[in-house]
């Protein structure tokens, strides 16, 4: 998980440049910028999600609870299925390690770049803080009107390389779903039952 990201006066210009080629409407792009502002000012996050990791011939599904801060990193605890419940992953300073007792969790690479299921949530946070938003648009997701954002390398065409796709509830501005796509195929999908951002507060002296 990235650490030490700060909101500075130059950021609005950088955000505008990053959205220069975005296909969304002015309203959708503005909401994307508002969301990025919130993620840049975050102190931490917490919530729960259903994770589906597609290895091609096998698909794994987990229920995961998570919490963390920019300073201390991110902790993810698997709560289902029962045979792997309690496995805990810690992500901090670009390193990941697992805590478990007598069970094995499939966290091997999903693609040739070494992407694993544990990379999904940190990748979502990084995309919202510093990724290039190439597409924005509106969709209905689970009966809710959502803003869909796609982040990818600006040098890549749609469906090439690694793409991070995120859906936010337009009204509540909460993260509903995220996907990591490699060469156009979804390799990790996370559906959030809850997602809470804790924003940095500045104490007045």
What does the model show?
- The longest helix is centred in the first third of the chain and has 15 residues, at about 25-40.
- Helices cover about 15% and strands about 45% of the residues.
- The protein is globular.
- Strands 5-4-3-2-1-10-9-8-7-6 form a 10-stranded antiparallel β-sheet, with helices on one face.
- It is of the alpha+beta class.
- It has helices at about 10-20, 25-40, 120-130; strands at about 40-55, 60-70, 75-80, 90, 95-100, 135-140, 145-150, 160-170, 175-180, 185-200.
- A hairpin with a 2-residue loop joins strand 9 and strand 10 (about 185-200).
- The model is unreliable at about 1-15 (pLDDT under 50).
Topology:
Layout: H1 11-18, H2 26-40, E1 42-54, E2 59-69, E3 73-80, E4 88-92, E5 95-99, H3 120-130, E6 133-141, E7 144-151, E8 162-169, E9 175-182, E10 185-199
Antiparallel strand pairs: 1-2, 1-10, 2-3, 3-4, 4-5, 6-7, 7-8, 8-9, 9-10
- Helical residues, percent: 10-25%
Give the oligomeric state.
single chain
State the major sheet: 10 strands, antiparallel
| Structural class computed from helices and strand pairing | alpha+beta
What descriptors fit this protein?
205 residues, 10 strands, ten-stranded antiparallel β-sheet, disordered N terminus, alpha+beta, 3 helices, globular
In short:
Helices cover 17% and strands 44% of the residues. By secondary structure, it is an alpha+beta fold.
């Amino acid at each position: 998980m990235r650490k030490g990201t700060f909101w500075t006066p130059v950021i609005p210009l950088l955000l505008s440049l990053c959205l220069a080629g975005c296909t969304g409407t002015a309203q959708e792009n503005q909401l994307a910028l508002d969301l990025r502002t919130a993620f840049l000012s975050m102190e931490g996050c917490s919530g729960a999600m259903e994770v589906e990791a597609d290895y091609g011939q096998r698909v794994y599904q987990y229920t995961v609870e998570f919490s963390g801060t920019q300073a201390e990193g991110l902790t993810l605890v698997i709560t289902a299925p029962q045979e792997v419940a309690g496995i805990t992953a810690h992500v901090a300073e670009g390193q990941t390690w697992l805590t478990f007792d007598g069970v094995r969790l499939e966290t091997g690479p999903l693609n040739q770049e070494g992407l694993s299921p544990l990379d999904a949530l940190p990748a979502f946070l990084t995309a919202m803080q510093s990724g290039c938003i190439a597409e924005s648009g509106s969709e209905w997701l689970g009966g809710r009107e959502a803003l869909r954002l796609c982040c990818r390398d600006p040098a890549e065409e749609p469906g090439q390389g690694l793409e991070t796709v995120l859906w936010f509830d337009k009204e509540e501005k909460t993260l509903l779903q995220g996907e990591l796509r490699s060469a156009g195929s979804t390799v990790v999908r996370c559906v959030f039952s809850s997602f809470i951002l804790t924003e940095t507060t500045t104490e007045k002296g």
